[in-house]
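In the current project phase, the collection of sequences with tokenised folds has grown. A sample record is quoted in full directly below:
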Amino acid sequence: MPTYILGIESSCDDTSASVLCDGKVLSNLVANQEIHKSYGGVVPELASRAHQQNIIPVVNQAISKANIDKNQLNAIAYTRGPGLLGSLLVGSSFSKSLSIGLDIPLIEVNHMQAHLLAHFIDDCGSKPSFPFIGVTISGGHTQIVIVKDYFDMELIGETLDDAIGETFDKCGKMMGLNYPAGAIIDKNSKLGDPLKYKFTKPKVGGLNYSFSGLKTAFLRFVEKETKLNPNFIQQEINNLCASLQYTIVEILYEKVILSIKQTDISSVVFGGGVSCNSGIITKFKKNESVEDYVSYFPKFEYTTDNAAMIAMVGYLKFNNKDFSSIEKGAKARYLF
């Protein structure tokens, strides 16, 4: 008998629902919240209100597009955390209610684990073998993880301040770019000189990261040059984007390579919204033979927050009969 899992994702500002059948995606819908662009970042209260408006139609469409009846579902997987608490509560409350109504198991999912396990979705091509180095890079997280098995993960490095995606967005705002700025910087960087401007790379011990110093240095540089030439940003936007992205990629790369050498693990698996950045992909793919590793990047539709990855984890947990209870609440901070 086929196993149908409904995944629900609501950790930040995207409301997503997906139906998987034995690891194959039948539907994966995402409702974006455009309202946050005018604020230059996600407003938690507005995000939770939008989730309340979106969740029923998104779930209904996901089930309809999967061409199944809701009574065929075997379990419901939902994001318990980490994320914005108000947003998580909308998804968790709805999932619990639907689980009770359909009398089927409820499965909690760690959002960051799901980003890495998205690689095991049926249509993702070659699958990484355990153990591997997991690198989660998004607007809210920058982590290096040893993944020994599906649910045996050890955090060995993380950002001490800003996340990598947050750095892209905040520096983009300094240049007057729209939110989210990561994709715009990536696009502009292809037209600029990555070595035109040099920015300081922070010195942080171990496998941890720090991006706040880079962000501050970038701000001071832009302010200094703008005083000398009010049109500096407009004239140098492509070179600024290219130089900034080059620096961020180098910071990320150096720590990941260090983790490979320290652990003697030669597979590197990326997950999260920033894993679609062309500079990161090019850097890691280009140097595979140099540093003797293999890198895996998710399909574009599984890089940003999506319910397919939540449903995938739900399917893996369903096979292990690893179910949750309705008493467990959403967790803004949810460690590996």
